């Protein structure tokens, strides 16, 4: 069994779907205090340490950043704050005057247990669209395209085959299955 610790129920659903048929996933809604750092790996490690100290059960946490080339990597690891303050409309407005749309998502999944913390990373390259498209997913999914589709135009199954979180979870899963 894997316990995912997040205040974001959508992330918990993605993790549960990813591990469907492999292992049971439980969710604890616990909001960690995020440190200010430039690295999603560093933030995930700190959150895992904090969550494990508070809860005392083996668990995973994650941290995700959206890095937009035309904005010098902004919002980076501050993606959740930017989503909560200016949202997708604000990001699109910041990019109104540029044709350069390259971006990437990076996710770090940190697993904590009595033996310590291990961090697994995933990345997906794509582009920022000119308008929101799609109704699936959450957060930046309607403005982040991989190929012709935004993440919000993909089913959860499609997204879980190629997303940044899926890649980090796959690296964790491969380690978890072989280490048991």
UniProtKB/TrEMBL annotation:
EC class: hydrolase
Domain of life: Archaea
Protein name per the record: dITP/XTP pyrophosphatase
Cofactor (UniProt): Mg(2+)
Function recorded in the entry: Pyrophosphatase that catalyzes the hydrolysis of nucleoside triphosphates to their monophosphate derivatives, with a high preference for the non-canonical purine nucleotides XTP (xanthosine triphosphate), dITP (deoxyinosine triphosphate) and ITP. Seems to function as a house-cleaning enzyme that removes non-canonical purine nucleotides from the nucleotide pool, thus preventing their incorporation into DNA/RNA and avoiding chromosomal lesions.
The species this protein was found in: Methanocorpusculum petauri
Binding site for Mg(2+): 34, 63
Ligand binding (substrate): 6-11, 64, 138-141, 159, 164-165
Keyword Nucleotide-binding: yes
Xref: SUPFAM superfamilies: ITPase-like (SSF52972)
InterPro entries: dITP/XTP_pyrophosphatase, ITPase-like_fam, RdgB/HAM1
EC number from the UniProt entry: 3.6.1.66
Lineage: Archaea, Methanobacteriati, Methanobacteriota, Stenosarchaea group, Methanomicrobia
Keyword Magnesium: yes
Description of how the protein assembles with itself and partners: Homodimer.
Family that this chain belongs to: Belongs to the HAM1 NTPase family.
Cofactor note: Binds 1 Mg(2+) ion per subunit.
Catalytic reactions on record: dITP + H2O = dIMP + diphosphate + H(+); ITP + H2O = IMP + diphosphate + H(+); XTP + H2O = XMP + diphosphate + H(+)
Location of the active site: 63 (proton acceptor)
Keywords recorded for this protein, A-Z: Hydrolase, Magnesium, Metal-binding, Nucleotide metabolism, Nucleotide-binding
């Amino acid at each position: 069994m894997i316990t995912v610790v997040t205040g974001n129920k959508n992330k918990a659903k993605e993790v549960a779907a990813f591990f469907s048929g492999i292992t049971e996933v439980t969710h604890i809604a616990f909001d960690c205090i995020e440190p200010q750092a430039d690295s999603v790996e560093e933030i995930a490690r700190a959150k895992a340490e904090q969550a494990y100290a508070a809860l005392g059960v083996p668990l995973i946490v994650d941290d995700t950043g959206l890095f937009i080339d035309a904005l010098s990597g902004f919002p980076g690891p501050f993606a959740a704050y930017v989503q909560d303050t200016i949202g997708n409309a604000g990001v699109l407005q910041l990019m109104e005057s540029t044709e350069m749309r390259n971006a990437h998502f990076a996710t770090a999944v940190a697993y904590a247990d009595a033996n310590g913390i291990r961090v697994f990373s995933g990345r997906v390259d794509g582009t920022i669209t000119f308008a929101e498209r799609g109704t699936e997913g959450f957060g930046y999914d309607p403005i982040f395209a991989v190929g012709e589709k935004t993440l919000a135009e993909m089913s959860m199954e499609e997204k879980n085959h190629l997303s940044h979180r899926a890649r980090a979870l796959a690296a964790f899963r491969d380690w978890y299955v072989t280490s048991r």
